[in-house]
Amino acid sequence: MTSIIEIDQNLFHLINDTWKFPWLDVIMPYWREKTTWIPLYLIGAGLIIWKMKRKAILLFFAVGLTIAVADGASSQLIKKNVKRLRPCRTEALAVNLLVPCGGGYSFTSSHATNHFAIALLLIMVFGKRFRQIKWPLLLWAASIAYGQVYVGVHYPIDVIAGGLLGSLIGVGVAYLYYTAEGRIFSSTNNEIA
Questions:
Q1: 152-179 pLDDT, tens digit each
Q2: Separation of alpha carbons 153 and 89, rounded Å
Q3: Helix ranges, the chain (H)
Q4: Structural domain boundaries of the chain?
Q5: What is the tens place of the pLDDT at every residue in 67-123?
Q6: Do the Cβ atoms of 112 and 141 come closer than 8 Å?
Q7: What is the C-alpha to C-alpha distance for residues 133 and 124, in angstroms, rounded to an integer?
Q8: How far apart are CA 163 and CA 140, in angstroms?
Q9: DSSP state of 130
Q10: Strand, helix or coil at 185?
């Protein structure tokens, strides 16, 4: 187990210190902040309402469920039981901290969990019809997860585990979405699904 932690800390130092760029130092604190994405969320919600009409309600419910399960699993269940200190709270670790350290524990990253959960849900719901959506959504979630390490508030293993957890949750909720959609809406409806 020590070797995994050493590898994790060494990779943390590479991302947080060695691979630093002045332009990323400016961008990453905003990029990984959830409020930065509010305009994109609003535009996306508007497009979903416009294209899906009444089916949008079910998708918005699925998104809400995804966020609730992902954030609860990461923040309440895993973090409070694992109790791993954030890198910025570890005295023996030199950290280039670009944002306030934040409270709570480090493992798993809730940012990574939440963003991968949403990305996978949307890929599962829209991916067959809009195949080009897959890579931008995965890159978006991965870049936010990377940003958590870059700014000094999470270790790489925190965001990797969070990404895996979020992906499983996103796929699981997508399955529930399709099950509910099949029961609520007729298959003859031509709206996007």
A1: 999 999 999 999 999 999 999 999 998 8
A2: 9
A3: 2-13, 22-31, 38-52, 55-71, 79-82, 110-126, 134-150, 156-184
A4: 2-184
A5: 999 999 999 999 999 999 999 988 888 888 999 988 889 999 999 999 999 999 999
A6: yes
A7: 10
A8: 12
A9: -
A10: coil
Q: In the block, which residue shows the tokens 């050493």? A: 6
What does the alpha-carbon distance between residue 124 and residue 150 come to, in Å, rounded to a whole number?
29
The class (CATH top level) of 2-184 is: mainly alpha
Integer Cα distance of 9 and 14 in angstroms: 9
What angle, 0 to 180 degrees and rounded to 10, lies between the N-to-C axes of helices 134-150 and 110-126? 180
pTM above 0.85, yes or no: yes
Residue with tokens 């959960």: 117
Residues 6+ apart with CB under 8 A from 84: 105, 106, 107, 155, 158
What DSSP designation does 34 have? G
| One-letter amino acid for residue 152 of the chain | G
